[in-house]
Design goal:
Low-confidence stretches: 506-539
Number of domains: 5
Structural class: alpha+beta
Mean pLDDT: 88
Number of strands: 20
CATH class of the largest domain: Mainly Alpha
Helix content: 40-55%
Length: 720
Amino acid sequence: MSELLLELFSEEIPARMQRRASEDLLKLVTDALKAAGVESTNARAFATPRRLTLVIDGLPDKTPDIKEERKGPKVGAPQQAIDGFLRASGLASIDDATVQEDKKGAFYLAVTEKSGRATADLIAEIVPDVIRNFPWPKSMRWGTGTLRWVRPLHSILCILGGKVVPMELEGISADSMTYGHRFMAPDGFNVTSFADYEAKLEKAFVILDPAKRAAIIKAGALKLAADAGLQLFEDEALLHEVAGLVEWPVPLIGKIDDDFMTVPQEVLTSTMRANQKYFALTDANGKLAPRFIVVANLIAADGGKAIVNGNERVLRARFSDARFLWDQDRGATLQRMLSKLRETVFQANLGLMDEKIHRLEWLSHSFAEKYFNANPIEAAAAGLMAKADLASGMVFEFPELQGLMGAYYAKIEGMSNRVAEAIAEHYSPVGPNDRIPQSTLGKIVALADKLDTLFGFWVIEETPTGSKDPFALRRSALGVVRILLEGNIRLPLNEALFLVREFYDDTIISGHIDSDNNVSDLKIFQEAVSLKLIQEGFHVDISKDFDLVAADLLTFFADRLKVYLRDRGARHDLVDAVFALEGQDDLVLIVKRVEALSAFLATDDGANLLAGYKRAVNILKIEEKKDGTSFDGVPDRGALPQEQALFDAIAKASKEAASAVAAEDFAAAMGALAQLRAPVDAFFEHVKVNDEGFRENRLKLLAQIRASLHTVADFSKVEG
């Protein structure tokens, strides 16, 4: 058994691509080996800024021998059939075939054996193919060659069992040579194995394992912070990104001028993180400290002083820009910022930002009043001002701060903390791991914003397709799902969407803030939105049937709900079973039903009742199709005791289940239905459904079983 060591050495690979690239390299090579019959015992991949590395242990010297059997025509078949068999099997003569017999008689069988190939020869074919077809998100060509790679590829190291695997690609011949740190050990050196390779790289100031580089960075940063009496602002995403920028990490600490500490700390941390890849430090109270951590990629002769000084100068320039924008924005008001957005296009087929803003204002007002028992005037103010900071210089420079800067400006203008907090939170959640808005107003504005966007894009039929979702509508829908469920908010989606539609129709709702920054009562002034949009060259066609739009959107929400619940161990078919019932648009209630249904089906009564239900429904499906009619009528009690017992049990269970459902006690509803298990089992054991003279009544009884269970869920959607 032999070890394969493969290294693809190039110019700097972007840090964000390294992890996926190492995973792709491992998968592509191991899958190709497996397809050729070669199994590996241990495969690992690594990445540094200048190399992708793969090591596979336990490879055989050759691929397995292959024995193939091909069944041919019957003995005595026409010559034409025999000739076709010989061509397909590669036999020179029918005499080379064997004759076997089965129950249909004697037939020819071709048995061919293929010797295994040398693994080195197989690798020499696989590696060039992998390189040429590597799935980089972005790639480039260089020189006069045809090869595309993320950055110019310099060398290929490929050794199997300590020997170079001969191969050549675009003038690059594989060898056993690699290179150390670009500045501290630039010369090449030969290696014989992975252990030799990793050890020599480290001597040449290259740490191969990105996890090890990240650990060194974190440990060094924590020590520097502790020595300064500070705490590291931990950022795992930044840590792994920086680990992809350096081969020999050396954390250093720098200073921030005190003059810049009046700028909001989110602005400072954002520019440090996004632009400079620096780690922030905080004091014991969590307040940003005037220090930062920069990670160098070499050991400096002066201990890193020049590196720190250079980075301090760069940071000073960035912070000067941020302070200028901060000072400039504070000289304006949110109302003035709003005015800059008036003629901004929200989306080519959805009109102007002006319309979006006023819909958000009025929807926030309506949601607060109708579903949250919150102050509608404050909600409207938050909705109106939520997007204002999009016109600020700070958000233009730092888009990731949208909402947050609006909150700062709102507080400066004297708006309530509740309004400011809602402005800051209304984009949340921006990802599956991001928390939902914590304030009531934040939830209101976030829901209004997301539902307005979703409805609009559904109306213009710009919906996600396959993996494409350019407007992040799946994320918006999942955000709605999470806010409603995690906030335990009872909001009927169909009703809320109808409210959204009303504000796409024919009025603009506008509030105003007086000179003392107090929100006045909303006033509705008459202005035809559709007319204004036409005048501006835009027109939102909302003539599309609302029920169709809403139904399609609810299906979309159901899909997002299934994703959300699946991650928490819930079954997707149970979501379908509940959603299939008419009028199910309250996600909180839907989840309660799903939970109760899941618990019920986990019991013996539930599992057996489901089996009885499916048997009843299958019989009904056949008989209703045969007769061309439904058996949903009311049966009588029947003649047999098992019929009568089932009739009485259905009447009792249906009444109790309906009452429990009305009280939103779905566990009790399931408990009521559990009473049907024994009489259903007895019915099928002792009663012949299609008995002449009794058939129709007994089929009606089966339909009653179906109807009873459908009071809590459509059990036909349940798998198993």
